[in-house]
Amino acid sequence: MSTRGGTRWRTFVQTETGSAVLLLVAVVAALLWANIDLHSYDAVWQAHFTVGFDTRHLSLTVHEWINAGLMSLFFFVVGLEARREFDMGELRDRRWVLLSAVAGLGSMVVPAVIYVAINAGHDSVHGWGTAMSTDTAFALGILAVLGRRLPASLRALMLSISVVDDVVALLVIAVFYSDEIHLPALLVALGALLAVVVVLRLADAGRGLFCALLAVVVWVALHEAGVDPVVTGLAVGALVIAYPAPRGDLERASRLFRLFREQPTPELQRSAARGLASAISPNERLEQRFLPWVSFGIVPLFALANAGIELSAERLADAFTSPVTLGILCGCVVGKIVGVVGSMAGAQLLSGRRLRPNVGWGSVTAAGSIAGAAFTVSLLIAAIAFEGEELNQARIGIIATLIGSFAVSWAVSGVIGLLPAARRTRALLGTSEPLTDLGVAVDERHDHVRGPADAAVTLVEYGDFECPYCGQAEGVVRDLLGSETDVRYVWRHLPLTDVHPNAQAAAEASEAAARQGRFWDMHDLLMDRQDQLGERDLLRHARELGLDTEAFREDLARRRGARRVAEDVDSADLSGVSGTPTFFVNGRRHHGAFDIDALKRAVEQARRRALAGG
Known about the structure:
614 residues; mainly alpha; two-stranded antiparallel ribbon; globular
């Protein structure tokens, strides 16, 4: 993948880990504050803030503005991430969408049933919604902390479960925990949401502002309708499409930037900035803009405003004998595992194995244990369903799920780690065929292949002989091939002619060498001498390799290699490749860095999956 994609991936992982740590700090700070001076804690969050004038105004407490207002942005980012997985990630396989929905529902129904069973006969039974939800931030944070114990593909499963969880939880709030619904206001909200759909289909200019204004209309209308308006963020985020950067848009952006470079005027600067921005999907642009604010600002602020509980030995003793606390803790920590594993096993059985997880059952169990971390939505529901001492008991139970979920997840991953290598691989990765990203399969008779034909792992690179990042990656690839005996390497051309003027000629020169059976010799020489790709340089390289220079010169003059290069470019377009170097490992796009350690990890996981499937 391109360096931009690798940097983005690393930033996202670091954001998840950092956000979880900051969220935990905010929880501790809220507990300390509430136990040092509960009066000042309540005074800050119960202060009223009014927007509007005269009779047309909206007056809410600071606590309500955070829970219903700012948290809409949190769910907006969740919706963006879900849509990107649906358009570009694991959820492109619609069977996986169905299975994720089944798992998500199972992970909510079983905890709710456990809560109801523990609270049967008590007035607190109506708070069953507090035991249903998984906190996305804490769940992904736990997954990031566990790191290499679990496969990277488990993240898609966790995200899928979390999204289904959030959607259903918000529907539960709207249906079971909202006041009397006012139909006219609800119709206004639905109309504004439909208008968002229309605006998103229009030209890019100004649509962001229109969508933001319409989203505010939806939020206010839902609030007036008596429905918790946080659902606004998830709905709007899920409408914003995601797609790989099209090569045509990138070339257009390059032309606009060159015009600005030649004549740096304000008009050309604005044109180049718009061209660069439009080359990236609005989904990615919006997530990049909002994710840091949500992760490092809004979510910790929510925790600070909601986790403050006055604790004492007596109160903790009462809480852990209370059906509210025990219902939430047992429902989340135990019920989530039973719900996820049981629902997926049932779906696989009833579908005749047509529906089965893309990871092993050990990973599915770990996903269930991680899903037991309840916080954000559970606190939202608790604040609506309970008051007084029951609210405090619910909050204690919710915070306790974080500790319980992490402990059980650590234990599950530890037990999996004790298994023999073959069984551990099967438990983590499973045996299902992974979804492939490579649009055109490798053909030994057509592709340029280096390495054994029966290798367990195939590494495909789309590259450009003039690309400096390809030059950096080349050393990594050579180290990898030198240390691995069951890896075959495939080179496919993707000359970025808009930024590398000699790349096309160099690609055609390598094909001219291939006509004399010397492709890899020329490939290696061109990668070593990326600053020597002019016509005379190419002829000198041919002489150095001992090629028939007259035949080589004629092949270059007649551009006999152009068709072969164009076929690789077409296959790149079919695979959604727009930058170089882009790697595929056994057909799956490699996301992240292309240093030797990162590629070795990707190759090792692909090898284990291939052996487990065999």
